[in-house]
Amino acid sequence: MNFVALKMLFGDRAKYMMLLAGLTFSTMLIVQQGSIFWGLMTWSQSGITNVNAPIWVTDPNINQVEEIKPLADTAVNVVRSVPGVEWAVPLYKGVQRARLRDGNYEQIALVGLDSSTLIGRPHTIIEGRVEDLRAPDTVAVDQTGVKRLGGAEKIHLGATFEINDHRVRIVAIVYAQKSFQNFPFVYTTYERALGLTPPERRKLSYVLASPQEGVSPEELAQRIHAQTGFGAYTGEQFGWKTIWWMLENTGIGVNFGTTVLLGFIVGMAIAGQTFYLFTIENLRQFGALKAIGASTAMLARMILLQSFTVGVIGYGVGIGLATVFGLTAGSGGALPFKQTWPLLVGVGGALFMICSLSSAISIRKLAKLEPAVVFRG
Amino acid sequence: MVFRRLSVWLALAGVLLTIATLWGARDKPMAPAPMELPPRNPYASTVAAAGIIEAANENVKIAPPVSGLVTKVYVKVSSHVQQGDVLFQLDDRELRAQLQTKTDSLPSAAARIAEQDIRLRDVEDQLQRLQSVKDRRAVSVDDVQRKWHEVEATKRELIRTKADLRLAQTQRDEAQAILERLTIRAPRAGTILQVNIRAGEYAMVNAIEALILLGDIETFQVRADIDEVNAPLVVPGSPAVAYLKGQTKHAIPLTFDRVEPYIVPKRSLTGDNRERVDTRVLQVIYQFEKPSFPLYVGQQVDVFIERELKDVVPFTKEKEKPAEKKDLLPLKKE
After folding, report:
1. Does the residue A55 lie in any domain?
2. How do residues A13-55 score in pLDDT, each as one tens digit?
3. Do residues A338 and A42 make contact, with C-beta atoms less than 8 angstroms apart?
4. Which of A119, A363, B7, B225 is the most interior residue, by most CB within 10 Å?
């Protein structure tokens, strides 16, 4: 019986293609939009993931990572005094202006790392040595910076430019996840960052901390908050805080949500309609099957088999196409494109719903089917 | 059927490609290990502070008693001096000349005493002789009386001349003392940390920069700044350790010295002409012996002061699960 069902499905090439196309493009649209959305969210918290610290301590009213609410210098030692803290180091973070040798200005995201430990330094070093940041007047620039500040022939190891009228020398080219604002990341030491930036009463942007063995980051973050009154978040919590802020304060969520919903509706409309037509067209065959004694349940199983077969194939092709899109258009991090397991599972669920709903309509038709229809013309 | 197969293969390829892509991007990169181990608290519970190394008993800024021209500097940076060793010499030519004059006036005063002494003996002799004449008619009473007065006057004169000599001596001693003041000596044993004066320069009494900075660099002390928020947590006498910036392998054990009773504004030296004051800090002084590795006065350190466990504000979760307390506060062994 199942064989017959599949034969019926694949036999009608035009309808099969139509069904497949509908489901494939619906899947692709949802996956592609969802991935770009997630990519944007990844970019928005790149300030956190690039530093990759267990715990972030800052002002309790902080909304998101790019919003700097600086603390007094002594906050580092106040955090160190909280039981369960393995270490705590300062981090400077802020947007500054870089002036290039040709007179052009660029905004940069300056990151000042604790000079002795360099905690928070980038993971991937493309060229040079990040340890050389301890030498005077040195910075490390990320791959976006190389592109933005004038290309590889101007930005290379040993090249110089100015940050707020202070001359700095590049000692390393690093890889960093792009940020939402897309300012290049420039790394230096905390003390030098204080010197490079205009005078301000408070300059300590964040205190990075790590829990001792046996203390979970969540627990310690909560404890730091309870004892010091500072806002303390684990990297993950801070990332989600940033994402929620983005969703609440920008139109990104609504925009992508609408597109995903449209993909779902269009996919469902095409698949439902085509499948219904397909069933109507094969009504005589179903009638014949019913006449020779097939129960409605068996017919329903056949319909479901057909619908899920085409659904699974459409899903496979759809996510494949979306991946190919991501690999080509989004190569080298030019486009915020990031697929995740939950997204793929969610799309699978949506497709399952599309298939179930469209087969439900057909099954309803078949349930009312009289076997006599086969004799009617 | 060809089409069916193609679509199935395409679907399979799509799923495999996606899985491969996701698999390739699955691992979140681990944070790179710190270049140096960050300074870590060795105690169960701590009060952390930022410290600066000073020479024990503070550094002495040597100042001259009077302003004057420097003629010679006897010490070099890092030379060791004992109490009373000469550090530098101010111009003393004028005082030396005065001393000479005063010294030279002494022999004449002494000679005058000798001279008057002889005269006294002479008149005393004359008086004795007049008195020894038995015959009252041979010597007039008037003569004897006059001689007697002469003897007494000469005696008083001798006393005055002796007093004059003492005065001259005292004046010489005074000049000597003033002269010695121009030689600046070490008030205590120590090492010369800075020399900011050279022969030929004029030393001001109220110079802003210390002319010579003297300190004891065998024993150091750490001035630890504790945020006023944490000031109540400090128990005087608590043990502490310090780590040099960028060198966390060696902990420097500290011995408690004292707590400064006055809370001062913390200054961050930014190089700006207006230095910013952001918070007030409690200063606690700890002493330590010179360690085996090089270390300099003025270096910054991270200080961890042990804090009594009973002071630790209980964490809400600990109250619910007291068994976890031990895990929460593991003692670092090292």
Report:
1. no
2. 888 888 888 888 888 888 988 988 988 888 888 888 888 899 9
3. yes
4. A119
Please give the DSSP secondary-structure letter assigned to residue B204: P
**Domain co-membership, A197 together with A272:** no
pTM of the model: 0.74
Quote the CA–CA distance of A312 and A23 in Å, as a whole number. 9
Cβ B328–A227 below 8 Å, yes or no? Answer: no
Is the Cβ of A281 closer than 8 Å to some Cβ of chain B? no
A57: confidence class by pLDDT, cuts 50, 70, 90: very high
Say whether both A80 and A11 belong to one domain: no
Residue A169 lies in a domain: yes
Structurally, chain A folds into a number of domains equal to 2
Flag whether A17 is in a domain: yes
Distance from CA of A369 to the nearest CA of B (A): 29
Give A320-369 pLDDT, tens digit per residue. 998 888 888 877 667 788 888 888 898 889 888 888 888 888 888 888 77
* Pairwise CA distance, residues A230 & A57, whole Å: 6
In a domain, A234, yes or no: no
Sequence-distant (≥ 6) Cβ neighbours of residue A204 within 8 angstroms = A70, A71, A72, A73, A75, A76, A90, A91, A92
Same-domain check for residues A174 and A121: yes
The token pair at A274 is 């085509």
The range of the structural domain enclosing residue A169 comes to 72-229
Q: Are A219 and B315 inside 8 Å of each other by CB?
A: yes
A186 and A280 belong to one structural domain: no
